Amino acid sequence: MDVVTIFLGLALLMFLAFRGHSIIWVAPLCAAFVALCGGLNLLDAYKTTYMEGAANYFKQWFPAFFLGAVYGKIMDKTGSARSLGQKLVSWIGAKNAMLAVVLPCMLMTYGGISLFVVVFVIYPMGYAIYRAADIPRTKLPGAIACGAFGITMTAVPGSPQIQNLIPMQFYGTTPTAAPLLSIVACVVIGLPALIWLQLDINKGRKAGLHFEEDPKFVEASHGEMPSWHWLSGLLPVIAVVVVLNVFKQDIVVALLAGIILCCVMNWKQYKILLPSISEGADGSLTAIMNTSCAVGFGSVVKAVPGFTKLCDAMLNMPGSILFSEAVAVNVLAGATGSASGGMSIALTALAPKYLEIANQIGLDPGVLHRIASISSGGLDSLPHNGAVLTLLAFSHCTHKESYWGICVTTVIIPVIASLVLALVWGLFI
To answer: Are the C-beta atoms of residues 274 and 145 closer than 8 Å to each other?
Structure first.
């Protein structure tokens, strides 16, 4: 029953979040349920266990959330991200509509831009591309999710996204951990996702489906930009990746490099730079508060007696510690609706034991890093996920209309891939 009450608390959290309620009050409520069933003092569980877990996560990751949001907002408001996207479309060709949406999303997330910002930047461009190609706009969210919530967030070596940075503190690794596994993961996740998206588009065409205008959407313009302006989108992206991976600097330094370079290249738009920083700062608070609350819930779960039994069950699962880690991260990412939150909960509880076992058997900790990162990008994208809700709301599409495309490319394929990769790599330990 100790373990059952944990899953009941997780189920309650998922249900309330799916119903659209704020996790800021839902998480402590569900934590109180778990604490009560686990025999903890409710007041202590909230004021000490829950708040310390949330506050510690906030303290550690706020700089990355803050600067990432500011960086993305400046790239958005100056039109740099849009110019880069349009240049990529001109190279790829609008006839390859799906790739013309997915690839810019991947490049921007790999360049450190928050996936929430990528949604706001890419949707208007994707809207125009799908209209020109006469593809139903309800299929657009799937393509955006594939590019923004996919392999550049979790699998591509050197990604500055937080989902690739969190395992570093537990395993002492670098952003380029386990490069061979990373490349294999990119192929087994990315290729099937792209194939499925194209097959879905072809199926829609055979069924006689066409693009239909969205009456709620108003296309905005950044005005006439110089022909070189796309470089103001590309060079900051390169700067972030190079500073993080080549010069081995902290993510804070890498993001500052991108921000400064983008500001310098857009100095003529100086009037909008300070307001953009303010908007980015405000937006970062919502994102990190939601994730911190999920981590606070996990801290209470970790404190109840049933969690020890759950950890023992995870560690004694058939197969290697890689499979155990893949299952644990997937489950908790799905329960919290957060890749970073779920992974933080799982690794805080289990990473020390995984690392101890890895050292005993001679396993490279980088493999544990990569499996955790890949697994965080699976069940996190269930219907109650904040990024999913934001994407559907911004595109004026319902779950019924567009979630299936998101589910296949960012849930089903990554979950299967993470478990299979963990099993296969575990055979060689």
So the answer is: no
Scanning the structure block, which residue is given the tokens 């997780």? 10
Tell me how far apart the 2 most distant CA atoms of the chain are, in Å: 65
Spatial distance between the Cα atoms of 80 and 231, rounded to a whole number of angstroms: 8
Closest CA to 71 of 108, 103, 105, 106: 108
Q: Model-level pTM greater than 0.70?
A: yes
What CA–CA distances, in Å, run from 397 to 276, 374, 411?
27, 27, 19
The tens digit of pLDDT for each residue in 274-319 reads 998 998 888 888 878 887 888 888 889 889 988 888 878 878 888 8
Q: In this structure, what token pair is assigned to residue 270?
A: 């100086």
Per-residue pLDDT reduced to its tens digit, 194-233: 999 999 999 999 999 999 998 887 765 666 788 999 999 9
